[in-house]
Amino acid sequence: MSGFAVAVTGLGLITPAGIGVKENWNRVAEGHPTAATDLELAGLQVDFSCRVPGFDPAASLGKHNAWRLDRHQQFALVAAREAVRDAGLSEENWDVTRVGVVLGTGAGGTSTMEAQQTKLLDSGAAKVSAMTLPMGLLNMAAGQLAIELGVRGPNLTICTACASGTSAIGVARDLIRSGAADIVIAGATEAAVTPLFVAAFSRMRALSRKSHDPRSASRPFDAMRDGFVIAEGAAVLILESERHALARGARVRGRVIGYGASADGHHVTAPDPEGNGAEQALRSALTDAGLTAREVQHVNAHGTSTPLNDVAEAATIRRVLGDHVAVSSTKGVTGHALGAGGAIEAAYGILSLQHGCIPPTANLENPDPQIELDLVSKTARPCALEVVLSNSFGFGGQNAVLALAAS
């Protein structure tokens, strides 16, 4: 390993697996699926999802904050607060001009925009909320986070569809490498479990139709998979230059040591069946980290549970890394949180390194015979881990891969 490393000193998670890092790790490591019938989707062709359980924005953020924030912004603030606490950061040990924010999102405030469009059509322009744009625009979660924390470094929003979270962490690392920041609050947030998004994905036949048994619907790499289960949530990682982390005596959970990105240049929604773009991103991440294929022990796969993605991704992993690497997809538990998925899975990758444990792929009962990989299923696999890769691939053929290493 010879790539530029940044320290991960804090984590914050709010996902269908729970609110907080500890609850998330326990459920993911146990492999318990979270998909359930969703009353807000009643009457649609697909009426189930993976929701954040028991989330009370007023209790988490206060009534004043909660009412003026879209759900995806609420998630971002809750995750960021946990990550900052976890990192032991405060006004006393950071220079606000040297702290950046890079957040990814695929959809932004879609629930706000859908609700306000309905008001416009039903009641007229005078009834549209003055908060529509601050709540709906894609950049505003990052903006609100900077306001909340009072930080004044570079502030960016990344939108690369379902690769957004992974791309955001990669860009954040590059900001530190460039010298533009000492600390970057990086991650992604998404709250697109809405009737419009679900209806649109359903019309594309991208979603599982297993309404009779939602818990078994997200089944990456399984022969009976029939689509993904839509989810919501957020993950925030505190990235620091190793020099800054060392100077303040921070605990280091793990490191981000490589990043690769590419485009398929193939199709709007379907992955390149040969996996050429994904392969380029994988190889770029390895090169950036100074890794050989044999040094990679585990891949937290994109693994969406769609027929096309899982086969193409598996073939790419085998071609680049060989058959020795242990592969799992945590989307069997959480579903697919779209733009937030990559950040959530990067956090799980760091936790895998810390705990020496590879989470199982939930619902993987009968592996697809086309997939020739060492798939981790049924129970978690204890393993002394040094290097983990986290894959994310999005609509538009946008690919991103992170290389993570133990502290």
UniProtKB/TrEMBL annotation:
InterPro entries xrefs: 3-oxoacyl-ACP_synth-2, Beta-ketoacyl_synthase, Ketoacyl_synth_AS, Ketoacyl_synth_C, Ketoacyl_synth_N, PKS_Beta-ketoAc_synthase_dom, Thiolase-like
Enzyme category, top tier: transferase
Domain (Ketosynthase family 3 (KS3)) ranges: 3-406
Pfam families given in the database record: ketoacyl-synt, Ketoacyl-synt_C
UniProt-listed GO biological process terms: fatty acid elongation
GO MF term list: 3-oxoacyl-[acyl-carrier-protein] synthase activity
This protein's pathway: Lipid metabolism; fatty acid biosynthesis
Gene3D superfamilies recorded: 3.40.47.10
Catalytic activity: (9Z)-hexadecenoyl-[ACP] + malonyl-[ACP] + H(+) = 3-oxo-(11Z)-octadecenoyl-[ACP] + holo-[ACP] + CO2; a fatty acyl-[ACP] + malonyl-[ACP] + H(+) = a 3-oxoacyl-[ACP] + holo-[ACP] + CO2
SMART domains assigned: PKS_KS (SM00825)
Descriptive protein name: 3-oxoacyl-[acyl-carrier-protein] synthase 2
